Every structure is written in C-alpha cells, then in structure tokens.
Q: What sequence folds into this?
C-alpha cells in the first residue's frame, strides 16, 4: 500500500530542488501540445536562491509522499516584484484595479506564483488540497490570493474556478501573451471561523 500524500509547507532545500525539477518538466517548452491542452503547463522558471528567499518570506505549499514532491503551490509576497520582471508589471497592474470597492494596492494579498502537479498524481484534486492549506496558513495575514493564468491554459482556468477564484482582469503582456488575472477572497465563507 502506498503512503498517503501529505500537504505541508516546503521548508527544506531537497524539497525546493524537487519543485524546480517538477517545474522544468512541466514548462510549456517541455510538454507537447496535447499534454499542454489536456493537463496544463507552467510558464515561469525560478532558481534555488530565489525559492529560498521566497520560502523565508512565505513558505510555499507542497504535496509530498514520503520524500517525493508531487505538487507545489508557490507563495510569493509583493517584495519579489523586483526579482521577477514579469511580476513587476503584474503587481503594478493588479494594484491599480478595484475589487469589491477597494483599490487592490491598498489590500493585503499574497501572490500564488505557480501551481503544478506531477503527472502521476493528477486527478487527485491536489490543487484543491494545496490551496485549502495555503488559505489555512495565510488567511489571517492576507485578505486575498491573486494569480495570473496564461489564457491558453484552460486546465488551470478550470482548477482555479473550482477552488473559488474569480476573474479580475484580462490583459496582454509586452511579449504578446494573453493573461487572466484571478483573485480568491479568503474572507468569503470565513464568517464564524474559529468561534466557539
């Protein structure tokens, strides 16, 4: 019998290295068109020093079986907008948007930098479990979770909608790619949470 898949925070370098390997295997440049369409893909790459700094600011969530990372959900604070050029534009754009009557830039939110599940663990709703864990870890500090989805990645769009994200904006980046900016209000459904 296989060991269960545990959802937890990534804190160790071996976990971060496995995140990077899973990321490389699922880059849009690394997967064929059929896989990209049916299973999704990732578009950004990170390196170990950057992941270590991100982890120090806000640890990412992983799905792990024994010592093998089967999925990840990269948490990222606004502080990293200068480290990732694509993120600089994204944060400037989303900070200028209104959401529920408030300027997003005046709100506390965490950025979900990327989510990915290993091929052998797909179909187990690991994104749902990882997002639920992310929310449980950070909902007291952040009101929202925000991410941008490549408009070609319909699989990711469906997953984010199922989890509870709402579309906030659509835009085209300087490189001509179309993006969908989505937001998840972590205060929704939290009424009475933690009360006796």
A:
């Amino acid at each position: 019998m296989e060991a269960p898949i545990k959802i937890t925070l990534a804190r160790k370098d071996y976990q971060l290295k496995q995140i990077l390997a899973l990321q490389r295997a699922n880059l849009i440049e690394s997967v064929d068109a059929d896989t990209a369409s049916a299973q999704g893909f990732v578009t950004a790459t990170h390196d170990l020093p950057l992941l270590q700094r991100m982890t120090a600011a806000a640890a990412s969530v992983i799905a792990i079986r024994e010592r093998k990372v089967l999925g990840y959900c990269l948490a990222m604070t606004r502080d990293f907008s200068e480290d990732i050029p694509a993120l600089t534009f994204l944060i400037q754009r989303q900070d200028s948007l209104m959401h529920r009557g408030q300027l997003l830039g005046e709100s506390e939110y965490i950025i979900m930098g990327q989510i990915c599940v290993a091929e052998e663990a797909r179909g187990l709703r690991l994104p749902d479990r990882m997002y639920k864990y992310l929310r449980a870890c950070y909902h007291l500090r952040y009101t929202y979770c925000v991410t941008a989805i490549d408009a070609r990645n319909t699989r990711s769009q469906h997953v984010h909608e199922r989890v509870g994200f709402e579309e906030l904006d659509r835009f085209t980046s300087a490189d001509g790619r179309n993006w969908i900016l989505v937001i998840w209000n972590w205060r929704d459904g939290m009424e009475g949470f933690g009360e006796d």
The first helix runs from residue 13 to 25. Confidence is low (pLDDT under 50) at residues 191-196. The CA atoms of residues 86 and 173 lie 8 Å apart.
